[in-house]
Amino acid sequence: MNVKFNQLSNAIRFLSIDAVQKANSGHPGMPMGMADVATVLFKYHLRFNPKNPQWINRDRFILSAGHGSMLLYSLLYLTGYKSVSIEDIKNFRQLHSICAGHPEYKINTGIETTTGPLGQGLGNAVGMAIAEEILKKKFGPSIINNKTYVFASDGDLMEGISHETMSLAGHLKLKNLIVFFDNNKISIDGSTALSVSDNYKKRFEGYGWNYLEIDGHNEKQITRSITKASKSKKPTLISCKTIIGYGSPNKSGKASSHGSPLGEDEIALVRKKLKWKYEPFEVPKDILNAWAKIGEAGETLEKKWEENLNKKNPKIKSELKNGYLKTDINILGKLIKEQKSKYFDEKPTLATRQCSSKSIESITTVLPQLIGGSADLSGSNNTKTQNSNVINSKNFNGNYIHYGVREHGMAAIMNGLALYGGLIPYGGTFLIFSDYCKPSIRLSALMGLKVIYVFSHDSIGLGEDGPTHQPIEQLSGLRAIPNLNVFRPADMNETLECWEVALKSNNTPSAIVLSRQKLSYINQENSEENKSEKGAYTVKITSHGSDVVLVASGSEVELALKVQAELKENNIDSKVVSMPCMELFEKQSENYKKDIFNENAIVFTFEAGSVSSWQKYKGNKGYCFGIDKFGESAPYKKIFEYFNLTEDKILNIIQKHLRK
Q1: Could you give the residue ranges of the DSSP H alpha helices within 116-197?
Q2: Do 13 and 83 contact (CB within 8 A), yes or no?
Q3: pLDDT tens sequence across 94-150
Q4: Which residues are catalytic?
Q5: Does some domain include residue 323?
């Protein structure tokens, strides 16, 4: 018995309707409206294998309109992914259900990325499309040739990040990227006419994209548009004219179907109109079998791909199956030790942004999967080195991306590069502009991706650019994000160590925060141990019985050492502790923490920024030296003096505290 197209689509619609109704929460309108487009895509075009969700050459399907998550969960269940069962769908939006309110990335499930904050999926998709081009260039177009498909809403296209990422995608001519715009003209507040009157055709053609318009409920138009987009030499946006809440007699085409359950009475009417005679969560066997065959076809596709791989280049089979060139920890560790020893002999005085550049230059000789970039600040962040080969529309055989002034887009794209598999992205901007990256950084941490953010110009030490560019609260803000390691190295030695830890951290993104001004080399011994790996360590001690501990990060470690020398001249012994990463320090044993801070010691902390993240270390008697107001425009040494961050002024305050 042949199953009709609309029956396949209706299976998606009713699973979505029933799940939202049972949860009494969710967004039924979008799955109902885009079910036809999804059915055509999965049935005729999308290459995927439910039995191996991580097949490297699978097409990526990104639900950027994450509020319509039941569309994705329905598709995963119907096509045979083990990750989603009918019981999971019945537990939509319930505690620990894989069917969360918005899709949450989990490896080997078919959920390619975490979406919900609108525009993020678009950015991730651009990263995935770039990754495909990079690996296609390395392994050949007969081995890597997948496409990235995105479902995007009007909200995705309203968000500013969509401009950043779609513009770069057009510039790079990412022909493997196809976006379906669910153009239903409805947002939460009502008609999109309330807030937007963009000419999408002119907008996307201006980016260098193809723009197609179709009836999103017409099977033939949908498949023709995908076929045409697949042959294009540019990215394509397919504007799908759809009806939100399709099939609902009283709520279709209205905002009332967007973000609320339809209600039992209305669902009964939808069942009648669409001739769906089955109970909630019931999908008849013939329809289930038809969907299962769609999923099973992917197994054959992967087998043919693997046969081709064996003929073309069997040597790279293990690389691709293991996610392409995994980080060799032993080789990396050996390199870092060699570099540390070299710089211990040289003891260079360098800005840590320069230290980072030297680190990257060395590391890229052993880790070709590093893909760098900067948001138009390559020369300031020092992210581009002699080993950098720039990627452009005619050359994907490179390892460096000029993102342009697109900080948020860069961060979302880096998440996509990491999600594709096998590549390690890093990208730079000023620390102050981490605020522009923040939503994407948060998602890096939520997904547990190996993404490395390089933030230079880390404090008032950048000087004359003034308070608009001088970060104050940014370090504290980044440290507040769960599962993000924030590194602020003090010299060449620590910078190498922080890069090593970042590259070894498989499930935690990293922010490496760097100075503009030159700093002295503070490492006291040529040790092979990575001391930064513990988050904090003792740099110098004048007496093991000292009751004063000076704790600092980055550029202020040098300041703490100068203060220590002044204290010694006043017969006050102290210990200087460098804390390049609070998050790693908090994971150490209680004995290690007690050893660092000394029992009953008076603790003074130093950082040229907000003191909020340092308060927990100072105890009742200590003091936090920092800045809790905006900076000033002047040469950096004058600003440090203005904010009382000089050794003589600090010495006076410490002495007053000790006399209490």
Answers
A1: 120-139, 154-158, 160-171
A2: no
A3: 999 999 999 999 999 999 999 999 999 999 999 999 999 999 998 899 999 999 999
A4: 407
A5: no
Contact status, residue 547 vs residue 601, Cβ threshold 8 Å: yes
Q: What's the farthest any 2 CA atoms get from each other in the chain?
A: 94
* CA dist list (Å): 104 to 46, 60, 117, 585: 21, 15, 12, 29
**Final residue before a domain boundary, out of 252, 281, 301:** 301
Strands, DSSP E only, in 194-265?
210-215, 236-241
Give the tens place of pLDDT for each residue, 29-73. 999 999 999 999 999 999 999 999 999 999 999 999 999 999 999
505/555 same-domain check? no
- C-alpha to C-alpha distance for 26 and 16, rounded to whole angstroms: 9
CATH number at residue 624: 3.40.50.920
In the numeric block, the tokens 């804390």 are attached to 579
Residues paired with residue 485 on neighbouring β-strands, in sequence order: 510
Residue 363 included in any domain: yes
Final residue belonging to a domain, choices 480, 513, 546: 513
Cβ atoms of residues 317 and 494 within 8 Å: no
Instruction: Provide the residue type at 610 as one letter.
Output: S
Taking the C-alpha atoms of residue 115 and residue 94, their distance in angstroms, rounded to an integer, is: 18
Q: Closest Cα partner for 260 from 589, 26, 552?
A: 26
| Counted domains in the chain | 3
Q: Tell me, yes or no, whether 339 and 218 share the same domain.
A: no
In a domain, 528, yes or no: no
Residue type, 154: D
Kindly report the number of other CB atoms within 10 A of residue 4's CB atom: 11
d(CA 604, CA 393): 52
pTM exceeds 0.90: yes
Same structural domain for residues 604 and 546? yes
* Same domain, residue pair 221 and 284: yes
- The two beta strands, 575-578 and 548-552, are parallel
Residue 362, domain extent: 329-513
Among 438, 395, 443, 394, which residue's Cα sits nearest to residue 418? Answer: 443
Q: State whether 467 and 398 are in the same domain.
A: yes
Q: Which residues of 304-327 are buried (b: 16+ CB within 10 A; e: fewer)?
A: ebeeebeeeeeeeeebbeeebbeb
